[in-house]
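Researcher: We're reviewing a set of sequences before deciding which ones to prioritize for further study. For each one, I'd like a predicted 3D structure that I can look through quickly. This is Adenosylhomocysteinase. If possible, include the structure in token form so it fits the rest of the review sheet.
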Amino acid sequence: MTSTLPAASSGASSQARPSTLAEGDYKVADLSLAAFGRKEIRLAEHEMPGLMAIRREFAEAQPLAGARITGSLHMTVQTAVLIETLVALGAQVRWASCNIFSTQDHAAAAIVVGPEGTPEAPAGVPVYAWKGETLPEYWWCTEMALTWPDGSTGEAGGGPNMILDDGGDATLLVHKGAEFEKAGVVPPVESADSEEYAVILELLHRSLASDGQRWTRIAAGIKGVTEETTTGVHRLYEMHRAGTLLFPAINVNDSVTKSKFDNKYGCRHSLIDGINRATDVLIGGKMAVVMGYGDVGKGCAESLRGQGARVVVTEVDPICALQAAMDGYQVATLDDVVEQADIFITATGCFDVITNEHMARMKHQAIVGNIGHFDNEIDMAGLAKRSDVTRENIKPQVDVWRFDDGHAIIVLSEGRLLNLGNATGHPSFVMSNSFANQTIAQIELFTKTDEYPIGVYVLPKHLDEKVARLHLDALGAKLTTLTKEQAAYLGVSPEGPFKSDHYRY
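Model: Here's the predicted structure for Adenosylhomocysteinase, in token form for your review sheet.
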């Protein structure tokens, strides 16, 4: 696979099923991996009962017919099932990953080839994703996923009419592009406060030079965005408060069947998987520090304790800190334990949680990893700038950083999501919950656009409960049914919803 980046403005043939995709309609690592990817997709479909039930329920109605969905979400086997569900419901789809390390190349190949295509004549969905992208490649892939082929744009003028986002990068690119077009100028690249933002500014400088209204047109054609994760939702609320949000958004993350399942149980599974694949060290008996005790941190702490680690939690929120203490964890500051702990995991959504000064104080061979969405929870930029440290790559996404004083630390996935960089992310069953919510949210926004003025919304409780119901049979779970008298006593319908919107599960 070449890393040469063709111009995003070049035309690509319209996506049609099962028309053959031209070479410029996709960029993945290796189409010969498609058969392997297709086998894993079939296995995942069995483990994703909720998402497959929604596919069957809406297949005839085609509620997403006419939808042009840009997806920016980890290109995994589970995401492949989501993509093919959106297509089965009538949507045209273009996809990029939301992380430079999270793509599973066989899954990306299978989606490009499609169930009816071959590596020689791919007939699937345009995907721009491969494991190990550079930052310029990553943002080019995002741009390409947002660049709709000539002739299929209707009145939108070159872009999607829906975004399915994870972390908010696709939404960010559209908003920054439109913002700078309105101002008539893009800030100088030298003004960027990070390497990644410099890449974004370079991209938008090129875009503004070739078409001064491109992103404005794209933004005007977007009906809405559905956002997958805590960090992306935070961005949406910030934009809405500032009055800069350009289209309505559904906060999928705060659906109970997403945050209380994907965030907790998914991380409980995938954190340990990532650490084990990366290092193969014995976790039992070691001291592990989990920074942040939200839903993600709770799952991480539980999994580490399950392996026999002595878990310490750091927190800024007194409620979460009290929860951690009541759950039996020591609650301390990082400075209290930085020289004693063996494993450090960030799960906060904040930046500089672990500074380069902290890493200089860690014990020899301490393992440092992040399971929050962005790579700035660990000060990797500061670590790289130090003159007293050298980096040695051990294997993909595992680096030893050696300090001149003789001690070294092991950093996983360059400070990015270790559960996807060093492992394969969350298991299919828990992702079925999240992606069922995403599909329902896409249908809701696309078919009821007039009911959603610009703002940030959550799905109604009855849809949350529907997603949960769709997964019970697979686990052999049976619900008790309220009598009419019991329901009246509780003030609910026998069919639900059973809890108020403010109920904390």
